[in-house]
Design a protein that fits this description.
With 185 residues, the chain is α+β, with helices and mostly antiparallel strands. The chain is built from three helices and twelve strands. Strands 1, 3, 4, 6, 10 and 12 form a six-stranded antiparallel beta sheet that branches. Helix 1 runs antiparallel to helix 3. Strand 7 and strand 8 form a beta hairpin.
């Protein structure tokens, strides 16, 4: 009985846990510098970070959802985000804003080099960040395409924290263990 109570409490705790959010506020925000490989556990290809005050009146300014910085795709290039260790991750979503002109973006998710997910197009403007929630699981690479060849800003890149997943797994294991003990009696 104690195992079941503990497992239920763990499950309740993980249901209220928040996802990990990469908001790019702990990098300089210098638009001439690439995001470092390994930053926040990911490799960022064709991506940098920019401060909200670096380009007033553009989507870079309005696209910063967190206090200071947003990521962006260099020179409007296709951006790739992959795990630094090659492990799978879940991409919940992020806030996107076009930098200069309205445009569309779309996404592909890969696992071990094979395409496992793809999205339709999302229309971005320069005035309002749009939350793109994909909730894609078991990918190791996320590719972001854009239609205009101009940059977009991305903030609050959201992935579940590994501790949340471990806590949920522990809760399930506890429930199964409690159930097994009860059946033996």
């Amino acid at each position: 009985m104690n195992n079941i109570i503990i497992a239920l409490l763990a499950a309740l705790a993980c249901s209220t846990a928040s996802a990990g959010v990469v908001n790019f506020d702990d990098v300089p925000g210098d638009p001439t510098q690439a995001l470092d490989s390994g930053y926040a556990g990911f490799n960022w290809t064709n991506m940098g970070a920019i401060r909200s005050d670096a380009a007033p009146g553009t989507g870079f300014e309005t696209g910063v959802v967190s206090p200071a910085n947003a990521a962006y795709n260099w020179y409007g290039l296709t951006a790739t985000i992959s795990t630094a260790d090659g492990a799978a991750f879940t991409f919940d979503g992020a806030a996107f804003t076009s930098a200069y002109v309205d445009q569309e973006i779309s996404f592909e998710g890969y696992r071990n080099g094979a395409l496992v997910r793809s999205s339709g197009a999302y229309t971005l403007d320069t005035l309002t960040p749009q939350w793109v929630g994909l909730d894609w699981t078991a990918i190791d690479t996320l590719v972001i395409y854009n239609s205009s060849g101009t940059p977009w800003a991305m903030d609050d890149f959201t992935v579940p924290e590994p501790a949340t997943l471990a806590l949920f797994g522990s809760a399930l294991a506890g429930l199964f263990a409690g159930r097994r003990v009860r059946r033996r009696r």
